[in-house]
Amino acid sequence: MGTILKNGKLLVNGEIVALDILVAGNKIVKIAPQIEGADYKIVDVSGKLVTPGFIDMHVHLREPGFEAKETIATGTASAARGGFTTVACMPNTRPVIDTPATVELILQKAKEEGSVRVLPMGAISVRELGKELTDMAALKEAGVVALSDDGVGVQSSKMMKDAMHIAVELGLPIVAHCEDDSLIEGGCVHEGVFSEKQGLKGIPSEAETIHIGRDIILAEATGAHYHICHISTADGVRLVRDAKQRGVKVTAEVCPHHLILCDEDIPGDDANYKMNPPLRSQRDRDALVAGLKDGTIDMVVTDHAPHTAEEKQRGMALAPFGIVGLETAFPLMYTKFVKTGAFTLQEVVDRMTKVPADVFNLPYGTIEEGAIADITVIDLETEKEVDPQTFASKGHNTPFTGWKLAGWPVLTMVDGVIAWQADDLNGKGEVH
Ligand SMILES: NC(=O)N[C@@H](CC(=O)O)C(=O)O
Ligand SMILES: [Zn+2]
Predict the structure, then answer these.
(1) Which of 85, 88, 208, 401 has a beta carbon 3.0–4.6 Å from 119's, enabling a disulfide?
(2) Quick one: which H or E segment has residue 279?
(3) How far is the CA of 363 from the centre of ligand 1 (A)?
(4) Dist. CA 170 → ligand 2 center (Å)
């Protein structure tokens, strides 16, 4: 038994080629122009783009502790709909992912209730309080793929340096939320045009760039692999570019919202535009796009951060930071950057598949014979408006409601099993 994905459009060295893919067990067994076989289940994906399953290294699944916002079941269902086959989940849960028991709980739940593969990140400090390091060796043993205090910055340089030394020994990346608490003082939006106009407290760019600068110095001193979360500033990009040129082991991720929106796009007191880091200036946004294009920024992540409708109705000043992103990420990247000619399709797909796999040393992210069968099928033609009410996520907090986008995933296969399939694939892409 096996499955044949029939007549999909594959990217082969930047060119689109129509090919069949035979999947048996959890592997891609064969890729060829025509694969036949009576024993196989045939899924006709004619005319659809077939890519490696997307990998998102920054997702908040909220479980344990904040199940009203999201659960492992709903968050991974949302991932599957967005074409993601692997998600790394951030440790700012309750309890924080700071013990092997919590890592095991998440892996167990993901196995029982999850639609896609879940890779937990372990905390750097106990309860993410920045006071005491976690037992990182034990966390690694339990299965974490990286170490992060995401949600807050590691304030102490000494603690960050100690963490990096241990991370080097364990062969784990340090994934850093870059934010200097002494510079934010209750800010809720970027310190700039919008904060001044609205009379809201601002978060200056330096709150991020000071940590990036500090940590690049520490990464160089310790030899750690230092990965920057949701980079949002032009000066941050400049620091990373310079560090990479000097051979420092630094990598970075960026979110679609920071590439597409800036503070001047915020219509008013609407917390669907509130996230951390905040939407910055036009100049920052342009620098992020240029940084992703030239490889200074390695990958695209969503920073999927669901909150309840009630929480988000509290307005810019009081609502929690964060927007959902799993179900709009690829359509946004495709519509805003591929269709406009700013990026090639291959560039965008690579930054959501092969590159994160390479950076985090994961055995996913490619379509080739012998590879693990993580596959995403995408309809590049149909335009659809973003409607949060249709999301599988519990979170509906997005600034992209009503945006007309193309590039919607229609099928997601994880480890050889179809994790999700759009209803309308049945009409055009019949399953036998
Ligand atoms: N990005 C956000 O705005 N919020 C994240 C935290 C984080 O990723 O820093 C969250 O957990 O809600
Ligand atoms: Zn963060």
Answers:
(1) 88
(2) none
(3) 27
(4) 23
- Measuring from atom 9 of ligand 1, which residue has the nearest CA? 151
Q: How far apart are CA 58 and CA 22, in angstroms?
A: 31
**What is the distance between the alpha carbons of residues 83 and 384, in angstroms, rounded to a whole number?**
16
Active site residue 235: no
42 and 57 share one domain: no
* Three-state DSSP state, 330: helix
Positive or negative CA dihedral for 26, 60, 143, 361? positive
- Phi and psi dihedrals of 250, rounded to 5? -120, 140
Distances (CA, A) of 205 to 176, 214, 227, 326: 16, 14, 18, 26
Residue type, 321: F
ipTM tops 0.90: yes
Find the mean pLDDT for residues 392-415.
98
Range of the structural domain that residue 35 is part of: 3-50+371-390+403-428
pTM of the model: 0.98
Q: How sure is the predictor about 432, in pLDDT bands with cuts at 50, 70 and 90? A: low
For the chain, the residue count is 432
Report the pocket of ligand 1 as residue ranges, CB < 6 Å: 60, 92, 150-151, 177, 275-276, 303, 305, 321-322
Domain count, the chain: 2
